[in-house]
Protein 1
Amino acid sequence: MTRVAVLVSGSGTNLQALIDATAQHEHPVHIAVVVCNRPGAPAIGRAQAAGIPVEVRSHRAFADRASYDQELVRTLEPYGVDWICCAGFMRILGPTLISAYDGHILNIHPSILPSFPGLNAQAQALAAGVRITGCTVHIVDAGVDTGQIVAQGVVPVHTNDTEDTLTARLLKMEHRAYTTVLRWVGDGTLQPGGQVAEGTVCSWSDV
Ligand code: GRF
């Protein structure tokens, strides 16, 4: 069975979608551990409710990015995971972690990359006046939201949208995209590095 770690920082709705989806997969994926960098984040309770081990590692306890990165590698090691899913993990991963799981780290981002990378993607989309936006599941590389794109979903931007209404619409699409990609992890459709088999549907639209 494919073993996965999920890295979180916040509310954990994507984590919840992944937890719920793993129960239904034909080729099961086992969420072996959830790692959270924010003590008290609601995502922690979601993992605990599902009986998944949680490792809370605050980045504030570490002097620099590199030592926190090494701590993440040490934390994950005993769980023997094949893949890592970042699900609202608000830290940039460093080279130690990325090379330890080379091509096996996924992230979800609330825009159609390469548009609107980095923080506040929803606000960036509203400020740009785009009429559609969406989400992207991609492989994590050394850049910020630059890795190989695996799947994308498109949603409309309405003229009366606020950051909150757009975020809510995007989250539904995020859950759909990420759970599909997790299924691909389990059945081998997704190759390390982010390639998917020819003909695999990898985008959806609510427009
Ligand atoms: C999502 O919008 C995700 O794309 C972004 O952070 C948010 C996390 O939401 N990276 P949640 O914690 O999964 O509810």
Protein 2
Amino acid sequence: MNIIVTGGAGFIGGNFMHYMVSKYSNDKIICIDCLTYAGNMETLSPLENKKNYKFIKEDIRNRDNIYKIFEEEKPDIIVNFAAESHVDRSVENPSIFLETNIIGTSVLLDACKKYGIKRFHQVSTDEVYGDLPLDRKDLFFVEDTPLHTSSPYSSSKAAADLLTLAYHRTFKLPVTISRCSNNYGPYHFPEKLIPLIISRALNNEELPVYGKGENIRDWLYVEDHCVAIDLIIRNGKVGEIYNIGGHNEKTNLEVVKTILKELGKSDSLIKFVQDRPGHDLRYAINPEKIQKELAWIPQYNFETGIKKTIKWYLENKTWWEHIVSGEYKNYFNKMYSYRM
Ligand code: NAD
Ligand code: TDX
């Protein structure tokens, strides 16, 4: 099979590329990525000599070129990770989120409709459901929880989900959608909480925690997400949505303190800063559907996953040091100067 992975030079897409290239030597795994600030060829460099791997630098918004790629590569399956993914950036500049996440997805859907495919899989997020209250631990997101987005990022992802479902209903396109909780693991860009805290703590820098650090996220080790997507594209039911999560709810403060303890650093590095506007309170996934229908079971809990992640950041300092020493410095100053 020919499998196109868009956004494969990013965090989750990159991990998925590694997973698929090593698991399926008889399939051709083709990454399409336009290499925004979040795309990184160093993430894909271990795959360079693999026969079943190909990289194409392209923007999913470029209709003509995407059509050409479909003509040449004749993909059977498309897994769409390509997106603007950082909530804080969407507060600063919403329009690129609408262009990539909605228009980009629509170009891919049109290409699938024009050339015919076996499956289009849209990688979505639990953020499309909005948030849950902090004091209702009995509530979880299920697949038919109403969409109730908070940020320009999550709104753009919800729009892409609706468009994907519309192409299934109207044009009978064979689609699936997955909505996963917060991922963490290797190759995670250090604008996001966990890699930001690890990299800054290692450099003995202040650690910005929004508000009181009480917001709750449901963390999943990235490899478990990759396994789930692989199961969905092979065995998932067309037209269906699958929630993915492993019941690893933690407050942000718990996450930061766990990392500091693992690294042997002091809690005094923590600095409580101005909150994120519209900050979602709690995310929590009910994963029963994917567990029952596809027998998916996560291999990592937060305790084992965070140890593995920290080990990776310690052993791969050049990967993240290249990032934090470059343009990222301007990003950090711009986004945090008014907060800290
Ligand atoms: P990321 O920001 O690390 O990577 C995004 C990738 O997409 C980058 O390589 C970037 O270069 C590429 N890209 C962006 N715009 C593009 C365009 N127009 N054309 C081609 N490529 C483009 O993102 P991530 O954290 O790996 O997230 C991947 C997907 O998973 C996203 O769709 C996101 O919404 C979803 N998701 C993320 C999480 C999480 O915790 N990070 C959780 C659930 C779902
Ligand atoms: O400096 C920080 N301090 C802080 O307290 C940052 C960057 C974040 N936070 C808080 C905000 C959130 O409550 O930590 C939590 C996690 O923040 P992010 O890493 O920005 O992730 P989140 O906003 O939860 O969104 C992530 O999960 C769902 C991904 O970035 C999305 O792409 C995915 O859809």
